[in-house]
Amino acid sequence: MIKSNVRIPLRPLGRVLAARERGENTDAIEQENTRQRNREISSREYIKAKGRLVVLATVFFCLYGVLVVRMGHLAASDPYEMQVQPLGSSIVAQRANIVDRRGRILATNLDTHSLYVETAHLTDPRKAADGLAQIFPDLKAEKLYKDFTSKRKFLWIKKRISPEAYQAVHDLGDPGLRFGPREMRLYPNGRLASHVLGGASFGREGVHSAEVIGVAGVEKTFDKRLRSPSSSADPLKLSIDLTIQAAVENVLASGMSLLDAKGAAAVLMDVNNGEIISLSSLPDFDPNHRPKLPASGDPANSPLFNRAIQGVYELGSTFKIFAIAQALELNLVSPETIINVSGPLSWGKFKIRDYRNYGSELPVKKVISKSSNIGTARIAREIGSANQQKFLKSLGFFDTVPLEMVEASGGKPLLPKKWSELSTMTISYGHGLSATPLHLAAAYASIGNGGYKVTPTLQIQENYKYGNRVISEVVSKQALSMLRSVVTDGTATMAEVPGYPVAGKTGTADKPSPTGRYYDDKVITNFAALFPAGNPKYVLVVTMDEPEDRTGEEARRTAGWTAVPVAAEIITRIAPLLGLRPENNNDSLFKVLPARMN
Questions:
Q1: Which of 29, 67, 252, 318 has CB atoms 3.0–4.6 Å from 507's, for a disulfide?
Q2: Nearest residue to 300 (alpha-carbon basis) of 546, 517, 509
């Protein structure tokens, strides 16, 4: 129906004329039309008013519904405070756990609180300042009061507080003291594996949350993966074994204390796939309260310094087996070849001497077991500088170890600027080239696994494939037999562990001084061990910094008296934990294949 907007005339001419002809009152027509017009106007206004009321009622109902839902949401959630960071920036507070190879927690998260002040809401600044100073002894009441009464509207007090401190601050009852939720990184084992884990700190921060970021160790290396929301429920599994790590650190700490050493390190690694089962460096620290980097002095004196992967040392006589293995590989000698060890061996104004007088001749196998510098140097001279460099490079001594720790980049070997014939001879017995204990462990793993290059790793290796071959299986067996003789009849007799035959080599190197010379009474000692010697599964390298055995009349500093007994005790403790079955310490275990000769 179409409504007409034409107004009804009050005195229509047609009807008025007709009424006059009939003699009717024409005023009645006007009155009737007036009433009809008023009814139409009233009807239109009513409909318009009714529509407006319906619209207003609908809008009011919707707004009331939104208000009810919002009030319900706020009632069920935690109080929300203004963010400190700029609007629009999001903070991901979650971080994945780190576990050992058996799934035991190494690093996890803990819900706690931060404490801040909104000065405009403080009811009693003096009482609040005095109360906080009593709860937190490191805070000064006068400074707090000065800040509370200044123009500052917002003030951080503590980025994280304990549950006890939370309750104590809450009991102060001042509405200006505010709490924000926090997720902090927790290391439940304290100092255990601290250098591996590294530590974490806060990145971007807001009142209601904070971003946890890695600052060192695997926490920093895998920071992106640990922070990713897609992997927050998937823990990072390391190759470290928590039980074995604890045993190694306990023995290492005891040995360091007994020998009054400045520092110590130990690396335990699977010789076949490079998985690191334990990596220790002392002194260490608690990652829950990670200390700051030293502003001055020698960084190596800081507990943050990782001696196992950052400590670049001359590794002494542990290097001798590499020269012998290469000579065997090149068919220059056999284990029975007689070597002239009469000395001293002169090169220009330099003289190479042995620790003891071993006579004029020794077979190659005795050059290792007796640890003759002169014999090794003469063999290295036959190898030549170019061949020596190529072989040591194949073992990894020219590059940093690509371990999953940011600190590993600081462990770059120190090579001679000019690789002369003298360098070739001195490097053959561990002087003139400096590397880390981790480099040494990887190189010894190649001897223990049949001659393959090994890359150390902190991750579980599935379907591992061997690296390049660096020596033949025959030479590997021969070198292993010589290393076994070092324990049975050489410089490492204290490494003999009942039930677990050990093969290894000692190394004692004078410690360089800041002046560029060497100390007369300070050394770095090493022992590189492979066990079980008949079929090695693990390599253990123990390093001691400035050790001294004072049980005798004179102080003894060589590796045989310092690093060796510590390594033997470690093997005694961990061999059963590794699932190794005891066996007879019998040299018949070694069935060395004949040497390849031209």
A1: 318
A2: 546
Cα distances (angstroms) measured from residue 553 to each of 258, 491, 519, 562, 588: 16, 20, 21, 16, 38
Assess whether 319 and 188 both reside in one domain: no
SS3 124: coil
The values of phi and psi at residue 46, to 5°, are: -65, -45
Domain region containing 150: 98-237
| Strand residues in 187-301 grouped as ranges (E) | 199-205, 210-216, 236-237, 263-270, 276-282
Report pLDDT digits (tens) over 238-247: 999 999 999 9
| Six-digit token string for 314 | 């001359």
Whether residue 428 is found in the same domain as residue 309: yes
What digits encode the pLDDT tens for the residues 417-461?
Answer: 999 999 999 999 999 999 999 999 999 999 999 999 999 999 999
DSSP, collapsed to helix, strand or coil, labels residue 457 as strand
> How distant is the alpha carbon of residue 287 from its chain centre?
10
Q: What value does the CA radius of gyration of the chain take, rounded to a whole number of Å?
A: 41
| Phi, psi for 435 (deg, rounded to 5) | -150, 180
Q: What is the pLDDT of residues 17-73, one digit of tens each?
A: 777 777 777 777 777 777 777 777 777 777 888 888 888 888 888 888 888 888 877
For residue 84, give the 3-state DSSP assignment. Answer: coil
CA distances from 188 to 191, 220, 287, 544 (A): 9, 19, 10, 28
SS3 content of the chain, % helix, strand, coil (to 5): 40, 20, 40
Closest CA to 388 of 436, 476, 322: 322
Q: Which amino acid is at 36?
A: Q
* Rounded distance between C-alpha atoms, residue 136 and residue 415, angstroms: 52
Would you state the structure tokens that stand for residue 113, as one six-digit string?
A: 């609180």
Confidence band of 489 (pLDDT split at 50, 70, 90): very high
Contact (Cβ atoms closer than 8 angstroms) between residue 301 and residue 273 = no
Residue 48: inside a domain: no
583: Cβ–Cβ under 8 A, 6 or more apart, which residues?
Answer: 499, 500, 501, 532, 534, 589
Residues 6+ apart with CB under 8 A from 405: 196, 198, 217, 218, 221, 306, 309, 458
Quote the CA–CA distance of 502 and 504 in Å, as a whole number: 7
Residue 186 CB partners (closer than 8 Å, separation 6+): 107, 108, 109, 110, 288
Let me know whether 183 and 262 are in one domain: no
Summarised one tens digit per residue, pLDDT across range 269-298 is 999 999 999 999 999 999 999 998 887 778
- Report residue 555 as tokens: 């102080």
Same domain for 275 and 185, yes or no, is: no
CATH number at residue 191: 3.90.1310.10
- What's the Cα-to-Cα distance from 488 to each of 89, 324, 425, 502, 549, rounded to whole Å? 66, 19, 27, 9, 22
Q: How far apart are CA 388 and CA 381, in angstroms?
A: 9
Distance in angstroms (rounded) separating the CA atoms of residues 218 and 511:
30
pTM of the complete model: 0.79
Nearest by Cα to 401 from 432, 367, 441 = 441
